[in-house]
Amino acid sequence: MGLHEYKPIKVAINAISAKVGGGVTGFQFLFPKLGEINCSDEIIVILSPNQKTLRNIIPPHFTVRFAFSGSKHLPLRFIYEQLVLPFLLFRWGVDLLYSAGNITSLLAPCKVFLLVENASPYSNLTLPLRWVDRLRMALLKMAGYLSMRRANAVRFVSENSCNIFSDKYKFLQDKSIVISHGFSRLSGKQQMYQNDDHFILTVASVAPHKNIETL
Question: Exposure check for the chain: N or C terminus, fewer CB within 10 A?
Answer without folding.
Answer: N
